[in-house]
């Protein structure tokens, strides 16, 4: 067997690549330098953006203005006129009210408004002032049993008025139905029926 391996001396392997270790070491060092420069550049972007702390909305969220309305939806309409709730800050359309509220209270929307999701820490003085404001509001809103009785009486009167108006409308409708123009009996007989009224009375 050793004789066979000694006879195989003329194998041609010149087609295989020759690797130059120095060249590849130099390439590796260059790549490491570039990565290091990239890391230092990303760290030195500048100071992080300081956003204002989160604060409560000073406007009413309109969820019910288009409730029960029918709208024609076309695929070529601008975003603000498509079906759903349109956010002008983020320029997007959200399909239902629950997702719209989630979007308004979410991180992306608050960032677009320039606010972070952190709430400003209140001082003791601010909390005490807020309690005073709420106490004053509560004192103004107190009512006695007499006020409650007046409100109940007023509500009952309004309900009676509504019922009376409903009855009057019904009466007017009946009177209008009774005042239908009479049809010529000859014309009705020619057409094959006695009249336009229903058979029920």
UniProtKB/TrEMBL annotation:
Highest taxon listed in the record's lineage: Eukaryota
Comp. bias (Basic residues): 164-173
A Gene Ontology molecular function term of the record: nucleic acid binding
InterPro entries: Matrin/U1-like-C_Znf_C2H2, Snu23, Znf_C2H2_sf, Znf_C2H2_type
Region described as Disordered: spans on this chain: 27-55, 159-201
Matches recorded under SMART domains: ZnF_U1
Residues in U1-type domain copies: 82-116
RNA-binding as UniProt keyword: no
Protein's GO biological process: mRNA splicing, via spliceosome
One cellular component (GO) term of this entry: spliceosomal complex
Biased amino acid composition, Basic and acidic residues: 27-40
Keywords: Metal-binding, Nucleus, Zinc, Zinc-finger
Protein's recorded name: U1-type domain-containing protein
Organism this protein belongs to: Arachis hypogaea
Organism taxonomic ancestry: Eukaryota, Viridiplantae, Streptophyta, Embryophyta, Tracheophyta
């Amino acid at each position: 067997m050793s004789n066979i391996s000694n006879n195989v001396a003329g194998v041609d392997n010149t087609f295989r690549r020759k690797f130059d270790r120095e060249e590849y070491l130099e390439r590796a060092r260059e790549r490491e330098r570039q990565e290091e420069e990239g890391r230092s550049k990303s760290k030195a972007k500048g100071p992080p953006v300081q956003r204002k702390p989160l604060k409560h909305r000073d406007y009413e969220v309109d969820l019910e203005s288009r409730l029960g309305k029918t709208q024609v939806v076309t695929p070529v309409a601008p975003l603000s006129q498509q079906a759903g709730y349109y956010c002008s800050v983020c320029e997007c359309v959200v399909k239902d009210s629950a997702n719209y509220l989630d979007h308004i209270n979410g991180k992306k929307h608050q960032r677009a408004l320039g606010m972070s999701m952190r709430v400003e820490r209140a001082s003791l003085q601010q909390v005490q002032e807020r309690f005073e404001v709420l106490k004053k509001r509560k004192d103004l809103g107190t009512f006695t049993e007499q006020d409650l009785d007046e409100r109940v009486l007023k509500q009952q009167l309004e309900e009676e008025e509504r019922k009376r108006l409903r009855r009057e409308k019904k009466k007017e409708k009946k009177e209008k139905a009774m005042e239908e123009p009479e049809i010529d009996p000859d014309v009705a007989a020619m057409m094959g029926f006695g009249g336009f009224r229903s058979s029920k009375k």
